[in-house]
Amino acid sequence: MSVAKSDFKKVTTNSVQEMKQNGEKISMLTAYDYTLAKIIDSAGIDVILVGDSASNVMAGHETTLPITLDEMIYHASSVVRAVERALVVVDLPFGSYQGNSKTALNSSIKIMKESGAHAVKLEGGVEVLTSVKRILTAGIPVMGHLGLTPQSIYKFGTYTVRAKEEEEAEKLIADAKRLEEAGCFALVLEKIPAKLAGQVAKAISIPVIGIGAGGDVDGQVLVLHDMLGMTHEFHPRFLRRYLNLYEDINGAVQSYISDVKSADFPNEKEQY
Ligand code: KIV
C-alpha cells in the first residue's frame, strides 16, 4: 500500500529527532536510482540513504573506495527527482572529506547544490570532527557513521563485527558523544554488538540507526538490493531478505529468452 499524498508530511531532520523522542522507530533504506527511490518513497520509508555502497551494488567494485563525488551526485540527483516524502541523505565518498575540513565543506556544498539532497553522511569519530563542524557552519545537516566503517577497510582488514573489545567500545561511545556535541542530527552504527549499540542509543539524544546493531536502537537501515534479494552472495546474520529477486528476475529473463527463441513472443495482441 502506498502513502496517499494528503496523508504525508515531509520527513525532516527535526522529525526524525521527534521520532526518537516519541519512541517511534525510524525506517531507512538505501537507493541509488529514480525508479527504486520512487517505489520506496511511495511505500512510506522515512529516510533514503544514497549510500557509497553504490560503489559495490551499482558499479561492481569490491570496496566503497573508488566511487567519486560526481558519481555520488549523479545517483543522488536521480533519487531526489523521485522523492516526495522521505529525507534524502547522501554519503560523502572516500577522499572527499578526510583530513581537510575545507575540502569536506566544499564537497558537501557541491552535493547539496547539484543533487538537491537534504543532508550528508560521513564515516568516523574524533578524526573527522573538524570536518563535521565546518560542514555544519554552512547549515548542512550531518549524519555520523561509527562501528564498521567500510571506507577504512584497508585499515581494519576485515568486515567482521567491530568494538567487541572494551577499548574500541569505549572509543565508540566517546566518538558518538563528540558527534552529538558537534551537532550531528543522527548516527548510523554498523555491525557492533547489540548491547553496545543500545548503550549508545541511551547515552545520546540524537537518533541512532543500526545496521547489524540489534534492536535497542532508534531505527534500522539496510541496503535495498540486499533486502530485496537482488544480491545473492551476501549472507550476513543481520540481513533479513523480504524477496528473492535474483531468482525471480533470472527466471523471468529465462522465460523471455525462451519465448523469443520459440517465436511465442510477441503474439497477435502484442503487435500493431
Ligand atoms: O553506504 C551504505 O549503504 C551505508 C549503509 C550500510 C549504512 O553506509
In short:
The protein is of the alpha/beta class and 272 residues long. The protein has 11 helices and 8 strands. It folds into 2 domains: 13-241, TIM Barrel (Alpha-Beta Barrel); 245-272.
How many domain regions?
2
Structure classification: alpha/beta
Total strands: 8
CATH topology group of the largest domain: TIM Barrel
CATH architecture designation of the largest domain: Alpha-Beta Barrel
Which ligands, by name, code or SMILES, are bound?
Answer: 3-methyl-2-oxobutanoic acid
Descriptive account of the structure:
The two termini are 34 Å apart. The mean pLDDT is 97. Helix 2 packs across helix 4 (69-82) and helix 4 (69-82) packs parallel to helix 5. By secondary structure, the chain is α/β, with parallel strands linked by helices. Strands 1-2-3-4-5-6-7-8 form an 8-stranded parallel barrel, surrounded by 7 helices. It has 11 helices and 8 strands. The structure holds 3-methyl-2-oxobutanoic acid.
Describe the secondary-structure layout:
Elements lengths: L12 H9 L4 E5 L3 H10 L3 E4 L3 H4 L11 H14 L4 E5 L9 H15 L3 E3 L7 H9 L4 E6 L5 H4 L9 H17 L3 E5 L3 H10 L4 E4 L7 E4 L1 H4 L17 H17 L11
Helix pairs in contact: 2-4, 4-5, 5-6, 8-9
The protein binds 3-methyl-2-oxobutanoic acid (KIV).
Which descriptors would you attach to this protein?
single chain, 272 residues, alpha/beta, TIM Barrel, 13% strand, binds 3-methyl-2-oxobutanoic acid
